[in-house]
UniProtKB/TrEMBL annotation, chains A, B:
<dbReference type="GO" id="GO:0006310">
    <property type="term" value="P:DNA recombination"/>
</dbReference>
<dbReference type="Pfam" id="PF02132">
    <property type="entry name" value="RecR_ZnF"/>
</dbReference>
<keyword id="KW-0862">Zinc</keyword>
<dbReference type="GO" id="GO:0003677">
    <property type="term" value="F:DNA binding"/>
</dbReference>
<dbReference type="GO" id="GO:0008270">
    <property type="term" value="F:zinc ion binding"/>
</dbReference>
<feature type="zinc finger region" description="C4-type">
    <location>
        <begin position="58"/>
        <end position="73"/>
    </location>
</feature>
<dbReference type="Pfam" id="PF21176">
    <property type="entry name" value="RecR_HhH"/>
</dbReference>
<protein>
    <recommendedName>
        <fullName>Recombination protein RecR</fullName>
    </recommendedName>
</protein>
<keyword id="KW-0234">DNA repair</keyword>
<keyword id="KW-0863">Zinc-finger</keyword>
<comment type="function">
    <text>May play a role in DNA repair. It seems to be involved in an RecBC-independent recombinational process of DNA repair. It may act with RecF and RecO.</text>
</comment>
<keyword id="KW-0227">DNA damage</keyword>
<keyword id="KW-0479">Metal-binding</keyword>
<comment type="similarity">
    <text>Belongs to the RecR family.</text>
</comment>
<dbReference type="InterPro" id="IPR015967">
    <property type="entry name" value="Rcmb_RecR_Znf"/>
</dbReference>
<dbReference type="Pfam" id="PF13662">
    <property type="entry name" value="Toprim_4"/>
</dbReference>
<keyword id="KW-0233">DNA recombination</keyword>
Length: 198, 198
């Protein structure tokens, strides 16, 4: 099935480049799409074109949206002095699904990494410093992933912001529904050290 | 993240309807696409539109392609009197990847199923009978899946074709690279019964 210029083969090759799809699942997805040409394939193509035409990164926080300044940064209600710093847009979406944070975000776009040559200037850290005054920020919440790279980045940002604004980070401990037997030593240690009165 | 009319949310909802992608992996795929707007998202949208405009089922064999009669049915060289009957286009693609079969195909589009109300007329079986004379078929190879439904369908087709054309089916036995310890009883029984001189 390697006919040059065949539109079906071309579509399979492009679909296989999506995260989570390999060649086999790309073929399966394309066959499914061909069977549902009117109900799924055409709407999907149109939705992709619409996103390709309109999607952009928010100039203020790095969130993706369809305007130069995203909905969250435009909302007056969310300008309450709290900024939650996340690594990636997917983390921002996860926070929004939890539907508990009422402030604004700042998406770093990755973590510091000497190996990969990612320094503070690649991570929108200068923009975060600018926002402190511009948006009268009172507290910066570091919601970076609990990985080595995430925590290294959190410490770097904490150093840069120290004394200028209140700093906090997400609590570490036993996840809701978690069983001790399945937790790693680090999590149990963190949960024990951060224990609270019952 | 349930804003009505947001193109990104709309795209995520459509992507989540692909086989192999759920809501989480659809979000991941869409973020990836937004990051690679020029390199992947736009080409993918265009490839989908091209397939939506051109893909159709071959009127002769049921394969998918971009013409009313598919490449394989158009090829004179493949009209060698052999027809390989498969359940689905994905099976046809698997046979073509093996690159060993030189005849034409007939895609049933499923298996007989009393429960789901799938009878012979839904399965392109009448068209198969028509092709026997029209294409001077000498042998029909039943390459249906080794499942109960597949084998039931194979027996039904064998009954219908008996005496009109030579019939064969794929051999059953130990797969290449297979280890006996990991094989089911049915496969071992089939392999033993069909043993051949060394």
């Amino acid at each position: 099935m390697s006919r040059p210029n065949d539109p079906i083969d071309a579509l399979i090759a492009l679909m296989a480049r999506l995260p989570g799809l390999g060649p086999r699942s790309a073929r399966r997805a394309v066959l499914h799409l061909i069977r549902k040409r009117a109900a799924l394939l055409r709407p999907l193509a149109e939705a992709m074109m619409a996103v390709a035409d309109s999607a952009r990164e928010c100039l203020n926080c790095g969130n993706v949206g369809t305007e130069d300044i995203c909905e969250i940064c435009r909302s007056e209600a969310r300008g309450n002095g709290l900024i939650c710093v996340v690594e990636d847009v997917s983390d921002l979406w996860a926070m929004e699904r939890a539907n508990v944070f009422t402030g604004r975000y700042h998406v770093l776009g990755g973590t510091l990494s000497a190996l990969d040559g990612v320094g503070p200037d690649q991570l929108r850290i200068p923009q975060l410093l600018t926002r402190l005054e511009a948006e009268n920020v009172t507290e910066v919440i570091l919601a970076l992933n609990a990985t080595v790279d995430g925590q290294t980045t959190a410490h770097y940002i904490a150093d840069r912001l120290e004394g200028r604004v209140a700093l906090s980070s997400l609590a570490q401990g036993v996840p809701i529904g978690g069983e001790l037997d399945y937790l790693d030593d680090g999590t149990i240690t963190a949960a024990l050290n951060a224990r609270k009165r019952f």
